[in-house]
Amino acid sequence: MPLDRVVINRDLLKIKDLVCRREMILEEHKGISTVPSSARRIGETETMLRMRKSRGATVFRRKKQIAYVVKKNGKVSSTLVAKELGISRNRANEYLKEMERTELLRSKKNGKVVLYESKVNR
Predict the structure, then answer these.
(1) What CA dihedral angle connects 49, 68, 89 and 76, to 10 degrees?
(2) 3-state DSSP helix/strand/coil percent for the chain, to nearest 5?
(3) Could you tell me the fold of the domain covering 2-118?
(4) What's residue 120's pLDDT?
């Protein structure tokens, strides 16, 4: 997947370069004004790509922190994880459910509370 990102970034740079060249030509001729909006859209796309990369690192770090909390406490709820990591309960729930889908954790319902524990035997 990192190779796909490299290709996308190269393509964006090529497009941005073409747009910049076109802007220079249009400035000389005082023509169409839609090109700057295209350049702005390309800039926004680059920003979104950077945000996705940083989100990936954040998600990975959070999952490691959750794994540590689960190891430390045995069984955890989303409320406990939220308090330990300083994030919202909804966000903690998302991380825990995703870790359950990837078979890192298993869940057990205890009344209204869902408790998560490590799937790896101790």
Answers:
(1) 150
(2) 70, 10, 15
(3) Arc Repressor Mutant, subunit A (1.10.10)
(4) 73
